[in-house]
Task: inverse folding
């Protein structure tokens, strides 16, 4: 909304009527928390006036909830869900009877922390410190989608102790994302008491000022003050934060300024007294009856249809080695260039954390800087921004090293999973294929972590040709997809006739296995270890006349291929991976064997301790995971000699 229209919108607000509606919202807040006997009334009451003001002017209604031109409202401290739901009911987006009766009841849409499955809620929050990153992601989506939209954010004061907020502040200032209006509910209380006692060195204003923000101070319960600050923020040519002095429990004198009510509800007698003070009717018995009838609702996250041209495939020469990360970079550039000039297709945006040359997004940075965002060494912020941006008709690509894109930001990726975003997480340097950087950089647990995030797919391509197809597949599918690869150059995989296996006719299908070599005893593997498994196959074939099959499982968390069954009926199978065995492909295969009732002994050739520093092949020799050592171990089992 431009400044002129925004000014006219603010001028049209009847503040007296809004104050009356805020009083009703306060009654709703204490009614639902008292009914549920749990919740966070204190912060909800201190934030409600700001929320009512925001919702009264924002371009959001029940008719435009999926319109990319709508304004976005982010609530970072998601525990103030009673206030958010009450404000959305005031906006006629939610039915207040459904909200109050279902609040915090198992199966209801209206959970204790706000959920994106609720109409009008833009992002599921609850883990504090992430809202500013979410707002930045939304602002980026507005920039890329070329919409004249506003992003409103409200945060708590206690969560300013979180480091991720500093990462987001710097990013917002760098890219001058002035369409974000940021409020901080400064009630000066958190669970443990006064914020100045909990963390004395915290100076919110100076922190924002140091990162290039203008700071405004207001009374967070004075609508004239709130709207005046919103107008100043809208007119400002640099990022603005509004620090709103508020009172925890505002409107109910006997609970005001008491940290107890951050997470404690009122007793029935206190509730009745509070309703009397507000001049509102006690409807608790009415809602108790409704609560008994609340049924389980399906929680559906909003999605959109991805429309994209996947471009022309790139085939890598069988006689020339290449690294998967370069194949990713080339495929990404190919897809971007096939779509950049077509406004009907879903836009692509790329995020980097100071590694573009290593993760091969530098071609995008150089050729298409308008869709490339450099976040610096700030992975927590980048992960959340990429996820939230993808929720607004954007394909987000976040490329990083495995340790930083998965391990370091597991909580952030988990939240992207909960929000069912459309993130394409591409990590390089996974497993032992990192170089000499050692344990701190060897991501040997990425499957272990990602298997815990529902809805996240993981693809581990075997060579540059499969990487090319997998990347194009990931970009064309809605959903969170992690494409993981090592660092080193690989020889393109060939079939038994010496021809390119993943040739021009190959199409990537998630869940399908690739039978690289037929044989009696299967070696199940993935990623960079497919090449090494082929070496094991040749050693055993030549030296022991032992027949082994090499099975590439490029989706090691989800296998949906009936051909797998025949290999699990052969009595024994080998899992070969540079991942922790107990939580990698071996874990997946063990579950399949157990659930399917197969009589198959699985032997794991994987990691059972942190590797050491060194070149990838040297590490494998030292840990007896090189092809010669694996062939020797298999040979020592005295399996039936079959050709």
Result:
């Amino acid at each position: 909304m431009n400044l002129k229209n925004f000014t006219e919108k603010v001028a049209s607000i009847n503040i007296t009527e809004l104050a009356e509606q805020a009083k009703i919202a306060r009654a709703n807040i204490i009614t639902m928390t008292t009914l549920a006997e749990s919740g966070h009334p204190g912060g909800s009451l201190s934030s409600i006036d700001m929320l009512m003001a925001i919702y009264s002017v924002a371009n959001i209604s029940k008719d435009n909830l999926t319109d990319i031109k709508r304004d976005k409202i982010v609530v970072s401290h998601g525990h103030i869900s009673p206030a958010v739901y009450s404000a959305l009911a005031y906006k006629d987006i939610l039915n207040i009877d459904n909200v109050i009766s279902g609040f915090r009841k198992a199966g209801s849409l209206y959970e204790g922390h706000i959920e994106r499955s609720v109409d009008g809620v833009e992002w599921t929050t609850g883990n504090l410190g992430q809202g500013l990153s979410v707002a930045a992601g939304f602002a980026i989506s507005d920039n890329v989608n070329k919409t004249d939209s506003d992003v409103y954010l409200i945060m708590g004061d206690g969560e300013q102790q979180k480091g991720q907020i500093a990462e987001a502040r710097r990013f917002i200032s760098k890219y001058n994302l002035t369409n974000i209006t940021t409020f901080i509910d400064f009630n000066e209380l958190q669970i443990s008491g006064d914020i100045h006692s909990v963390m004395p060195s915290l100076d919110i204003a100076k922190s924002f000022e140091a990162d290039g923000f203008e700071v405004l101070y207001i009374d967070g319960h004075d609508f004239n003050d709130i709207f005046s600050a919103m107008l100043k923020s809208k007119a400002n040519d640099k990022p603005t934060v509004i620090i709103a002095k508020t009172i925890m429990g505002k409107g109910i004198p006997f609970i005001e300024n008491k940290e107890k009510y951050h997470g404690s509800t009122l007793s029935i007698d206190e509730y009745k007294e509070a309703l009397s003070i507000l001049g509102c009717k006690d409807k608790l018995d009415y809602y108790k009856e409704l609560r008994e009838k609340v049924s389980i609702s399906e929680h559906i996250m909003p999605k959109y249809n991805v429309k994209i041209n996947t471009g022309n495939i790139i085939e890598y020469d069988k006689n020339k080695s290449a690294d998967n990360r370069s194949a990713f970079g080339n495929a990404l550039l190919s897809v971007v260039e096939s779509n950049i000039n077509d406004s009907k297709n879903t836009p692509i945006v790329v995020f980097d954390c100071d590694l573009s040359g290593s993760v091969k997004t530098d071609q995008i940075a150089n050729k298409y800087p308008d869709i490339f965002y450099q976040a610096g060494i700030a992975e927590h912020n980048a992960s959340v921004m990429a996820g939230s941006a993808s929720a607004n008709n954007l394909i987000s690509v976040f490329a990083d090293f495995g340790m930083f894109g998965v391990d370091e930001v597991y909580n952030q990726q988990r939240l992207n999973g909960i929000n069912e975003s459309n993130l394409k997480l591409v990590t390089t340097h996974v497993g032992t294929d990192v170089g000499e950087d050692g344990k701190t950089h060897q991501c040997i647990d990425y499957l272990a972590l990602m298997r815990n995030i529902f809805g996240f797919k993981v693809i581990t391509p075997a060579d540059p040709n499969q990487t090319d197809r997998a990347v194009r597949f990931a970009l064309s599918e809605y959903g969170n997809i992690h494409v993981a690869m090592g660092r080193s150059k690989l020889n393109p995989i060939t079939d038994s006739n010496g021809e390119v296996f993943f040739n021009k006719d190959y199409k990537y299908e998630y869940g399908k296995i690739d039978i690289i070599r037929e044989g009696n005893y299967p070696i199940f593997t993935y990623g960079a270890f497919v090449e090494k498994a082929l070496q094991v196959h040749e050693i055993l074939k030549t030296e022991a006349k032992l027949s082994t099959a090499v099975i590439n499982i490029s989706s090691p968390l989800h296998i949906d291929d009936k051909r797998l069954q025949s290999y699990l009926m052969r009595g024994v199978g080998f899992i070969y991976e540079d991942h922790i065995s107990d939580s990698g492909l071996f874990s997946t295969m063990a579950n399949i064997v157990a659930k399917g009732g197969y009589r198959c002994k699985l032997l794991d050739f994987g990691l059972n301790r942190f590797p050491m520093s060194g070149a990838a092949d040297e590490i494998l020799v030292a840990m007896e995971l090189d092809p010669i050592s694996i062939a020797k171990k298999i040979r020592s089992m005295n399996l039936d000699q079959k050709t």
About this structure: The mean pLDDT is 96.
